User: What shape does this take?
Amino acid sequence: EPEVTQTPSHQVTQMGQEVILRCVPISNHLYFYWYRQILGQKVEFLVSFYNNEISEKSEIFDDQFSVERPDGSNFTLKIRSTKLEDSAMYFCASFQGYTEAFFGQGTRLTVV
Amino acid sequence: ILNVEQSPQSLHVQEGDSTNFTCSFPSSNFYALHWYRWETAKSPEALFVMTLNGDEKKKGRISATLNTKEGYSYLYIKGSQPEDSATYLCAFTPPRKTSYDKVIFGPGTSLSVIP
Assistant: This one.
C-alpha cells in the first residue's frame, strides 16, 4: 500500500520563528498538496504543486508560506514567521490525477 | 466559487442502525467526486472515487451513489458499528479548464455510533 509520510508528527515553535514541515509523497504521483485543519474547523486547501512549481494557492497561502521540492522526493512547506493562528494540523497529500488523494499522517503545529 | 456542502454536520446513531448523508457540489463543473473517512488522530483515508453519473460503489457495509446532473452524492452505511465513528469528507475535483489541480473538500459529516 503506497503511503505519504510526514515529519515531524508534532512541532512546537515560538511565534515569529520559521518552521519547515516535510513530506515524502508517493513517488510516481504528479500533484502534491498541502492542506491544514485548525482545531474544530474544516479542512482548508493551502497550495497545489505540479511540475516543480505552484499550480494553485489559496488566500491563506500568503508571502509567509513557501513550498519546494528540493531533491525530487521531499515536498516541504515553510512558514517564515509563524503566528498563533498558524497552529493547526498540516496534511500533505499526493494525487495522481485520476484516482484518490493519499494523505500523510499530518504534522501538528503549535505556535506559542 | 466552487463550493462543496455536506449535510448533516453531525449525526449520532445507535449501533446497528443504517444511516446516510449527503454531499452537494457544482454540477456544471465536474470531473470526479471522492469520499474520505477521517478518524480522530489519523489521516483521511479514501473510500471511493466516482466519475460517472449514476455510479454506485460499495465497500463492505458502506456504499455511495453519484448524480452529476443535479450535483449530489449519497453515502450509506448499513448496520453502523462503533468503528464507523469518524468524520466523512466529500471532495470534488473540477475539470482542468477550471481548476483541475485542486481537490475541494466539504466541511464533513461527523458520525458517532453509540454502542
In short: The first strand of chain B starts at residue 5 and ends at 7. Chain B has a mean pLDDT of 88. The helical segments of chain B are 96-99.
